[in-house]
């Protein structure tokens, strides 16, 4: 009941603000006669977007596929690594400085190196960049979740005389799921961003990143913005699918961000 | 068992092996600075099967520690604890007791029914038997209509009822309860107390009940164990004779015998000088 009451506010308000912002943008471009290479008007971007939907779609597929492969690889490796680090704390101690280092370096900076390693005509470098960017938040959040068992649950498991494996299966693993999804939500956006930025540093053409740069280089600014719009939509799709998956898997648990 | 006061630490009616037998138990927590904290010292207590005993005292008197020692969640530094004639450890492994804490501690990803069945599931009880038992417990705590709800869809009082049903899952002869109603509002609390009295009468389990509230202890118990802090020890054991469970309706809360017992516990808590300022951390409601 509470949710439906706040529905207009949570959905309509941002839409209204968005429409208002776009209208102001259009007004500013027309009234101040802003040149397209500085800022194209929303109408021209929309026209360009609808005119080249098929090429934006194709570019989104290329970048989206790289992001998805990176997301899957990074998430699987991150989850496995977190489980290993929980079972064998020594591995966590050994890898802690490495993970800390990896979490501060901008992963996309490695793209040029990967292009020389794996070949500039392959998508591998971009997928690897995305996987690396995904690994860090998934690993760290899953690890935190696995160590999150509440004292009252630990006491209960001991009172039940549960074995270590029983306690892991009944409490630790399900308890870590909300944290895993926090990691995945961050990672889903990171995967798209990394795969797209990775394209700026080389590799085959066809993806959104390359399309944005080549459209801008040929002074087709509205088209460049149309690709940017495609990138925004792609990022949103990744985020929303992850969020939906989370709601599907765990509809009845307090969000892990709540105390 | 040689001192005068320990004679009172015996159950009123002792028949068969004691539900809990605590002998000369001490617990010292080693702190990092080297200053050890004595949580409990020379505690003797015997609880008969079916008896309801409350542990009451100010914060830091070791009442929760004593409960955790009986549950074998911690081990005593000295002395020994027996539960139904077995060591505390063996009793825990044999599931001789059920336990409930101040936090309901339900697993949020399990339904109410699956939460109640958790201990049965861990001990490999068959699915049909589990279902029958959980249905029975659900109606015992009045939550039959909520079997398929999740904990976040229940109020605090209902969650605590689920936790109590879970603690009863394996029909234990002993219930250990650590301030199970501590987080509930006064009205819910009184209703839960009445229900607990009824449930205990139906199951015949002995109960060790840790609480901050004098009226709660008096209303529920056959005996109230008053503890004092630094170091935690038993100051007094007060027998409360308010009749059997059937007679313990809401009217009892306004009976003279109830008030007399409340006064007796309060005076004991405050030491020799009756009417002294309230002991810290003790709920006077």
Provide an overview of this structure:
The complex is a heterodimer of chains A (259) and B (285). With 259 residues, chain A is mainly alpha-helical. Chain A has ten helices and no strands. Chain A is globular. The model of chain A is unreliable at 254-259 (pLDDT under 50). With 285 residues, chain B is α/β, with parallel strands linked by helices. Chain B folds into two domains: 1-96 and 173-285, Rossmann fold; 104-171, no CATH class. In chain B, 32% of the residues lie in helices and 22% in strands. Chain B is built from eight helices and ten strands. Chain B has helices at 63-70, 88-93, 112-122, 127-140, 156-167, 186-203, 214-220, 256-269; strands at 20-29, 37-47, 52-56, 78-83, 86-87, 97-100, 174-178, 206-211, 223-228, 233-239. Chain B has a six-stranded mixed beta sheet, sandwiched between helices. Chain B has a four-stranded antiparallel beta sheet with strand order 2-1-4-5. In chain B, 46% of the residues are buried. Chain A binds chain B through residues 150, 152-153, 155-156, 158-162, 166, 170-171, 174, 177, 250-254, and chain B through 71-73, 92-93, 95, 97, 99, 101, 103, 105, 107-109, 118-119, 121-123, 150-153.
């Amino acid at each position: 009941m509470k949710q439906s009451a706040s529905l207009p506010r949570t959905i309509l308000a941002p839409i209204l603000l968005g429409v208002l912002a776009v209208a102001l943008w259009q007004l500013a471009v027309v009234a101040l006669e802003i040149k397209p290479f500085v800022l194209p008007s929303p109408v021209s971007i929309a026209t360009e977007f609808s005119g080249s939907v098929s090429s934006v779609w194709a570019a989104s597929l290329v970048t989206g596929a790289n992001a998805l492969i990176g997301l899957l690889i990074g998430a699987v490796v991150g989850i496995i690594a977190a489980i290993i680090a929980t079972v064998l704390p020594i591995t966590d101690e050994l890898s802690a400085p490495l993970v800390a280092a990896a979490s501060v370096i901008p992963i996309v900076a490695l793209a040029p190196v990967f292009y020389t390693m794996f070949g500039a005509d392959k998508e591998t470098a971009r997928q690897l960049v995305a996987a690396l960017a995904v690994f860090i938040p998934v690993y760290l959040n899953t690890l935190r979740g696995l160590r999150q068992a509440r004292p009252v649950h630990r006491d209960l498991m001991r009172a039940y005389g549960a074995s270590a494996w029983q306690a892991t299966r009944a409490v630790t693993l399900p308890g870590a799921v909300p944290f895993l999804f926090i990691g995945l939500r961050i990672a889903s956006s990171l995967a798209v961003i990394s795969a797209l930025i990775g394209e700026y540093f080389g590799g085959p053409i066809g993806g959104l990143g390359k399309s944005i740069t080549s459209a801008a280089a040929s002074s087709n600014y509205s088209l460049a913005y149309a690709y940017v719009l495609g990138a925004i939509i792609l990022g949103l799709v990744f985020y929303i699918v992850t969020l939906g998956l989370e709601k599907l898997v765990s509809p009845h648990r307090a969000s892990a961000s709540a105390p | 068992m040689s001192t005068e006061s320990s004679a009172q630490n015996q159950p009123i009616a002792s028949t068969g092996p004691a539900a809990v037998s605590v002998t000369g138990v001490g617990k010292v927590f080693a702190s990092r600075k080297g200053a050890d904290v004595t949580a409990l010292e020379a505690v003797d207590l015997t609880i008969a099967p079916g008896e309801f005993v409350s542990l009451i005292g100010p914060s830091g008197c070791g009442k929760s520690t004593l409960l955790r020692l009986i549950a074998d969640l911690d081990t005593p530094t000295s002395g020994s604890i027996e539960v139904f004639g077995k060591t505390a450890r063996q009793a825990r492994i044999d599931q001789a007791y059920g336990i409930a804490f101040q936090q309901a501690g339900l697993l949020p990803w399990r339904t109410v029914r699956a939460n109640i069945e958790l201990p049965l599931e861990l001990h490999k009880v068959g699915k049909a038997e589990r279902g029958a038992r959980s249905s029975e417990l659900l109606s015992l705590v009045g939550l039959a209509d909520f079997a398929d709800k999740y904990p976040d869809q229940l109020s605090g009082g209902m969650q605590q009822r689920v936790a109590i049903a879970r603690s009863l899952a394996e029909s234990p002869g002993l219930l250990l309860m650590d301030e199970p109603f501590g987080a509930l509002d006064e009205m819910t609390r009184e209703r839960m107390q009445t229900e607990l009295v009824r449930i205990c009468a139906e199951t015949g389990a002995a109960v060790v009940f840790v609480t901050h509230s004098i009226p709660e202890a008096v209303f529920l118990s056959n005996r109230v164990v008053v503890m004092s802090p630094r170091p935690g020890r038993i100051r007094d054991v007060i027998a409360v004779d308010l009749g059997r469970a059937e007679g313990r309706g809401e009217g009892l809360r306004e009976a003279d015998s109830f008030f007399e017992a409340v006064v007796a516990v309060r005076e004991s808590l405050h030491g020799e000088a009756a009417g002294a300022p309230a002991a810290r951390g003790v709920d006077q409601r």
